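Lab notebook, bench 4. The sequencing result for the construct came back, and we need a structural model before the next group meeting so we can plan mutations. Quick request posted to the team channel:

Model the 3D structure of this chain.
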Amino acid sequence: MAFCPLKLTALPPSVGLLAGAEPADRVEIVEGACRFEVDVRAGHKTGFYLDQRPSRQRVSECVSGAEVLNCFSYSGAFGVWALKGGAKRLVNIDTSAPALQQAERHLALNGYEDADADHVVGDVFHELRRFRDSRATFDTIVLDPPKFAASREHVAKASRGYKDINRLAMLLLRPGGLLFTFSCSGHVTPDFFQKIVADAAIDAGRDAQILDRLGCAADHPVLATFPEGHYLKGLMLRVS
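Done. Here's the predicted structure in token form:
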């Protein structure tokens, strides 16, 4: 379901230097109390999702002693912040083996090479069902999927995808567990996304209380003339 704008423009994909000196293969950055390596050549988009900075810090504040499932983990930034916040166990899931290898390097870079952490290469939809069937449970789950709706025509299909992963996540949460769930589809409005999550809770037979609304940091402003720029929507919920 990932969206590639080059397919719409028919532009050939290319990688190369536009100006200045060639950068290193990986550029190290510091985000608050954590360190990360950014793959500026082969990484997704810019190589790191800076827009999720405040959400990662919010997760870190809430997971002391928790078992955390980080879905669509990419290079594991949410996972690093979870361990920084005192999480006792971490599971990262992503379809990209290279991204999860980078996630392992990020753990080592931050001193968590001996942490209780698993990195699962797989489709999140499938892996959530596998966890459900094995009766696995978690204290906190992060759902940060790629864009499901590239256009208005894709919204109906995207809403089914969002509902499915949220329903499954709620089934995996222990009573009182926390769900951090996001949508970066500009055509899925915040109100509609909240309705999707609410419907997922009903189907899962769980009560979900909204504790916080999450989104881009202040350095990602939204133009009044471009409401689709309000692309990142997030909810923090307590599920009982």
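The mean pLDDT is 92.
Will bring this to the meeting.
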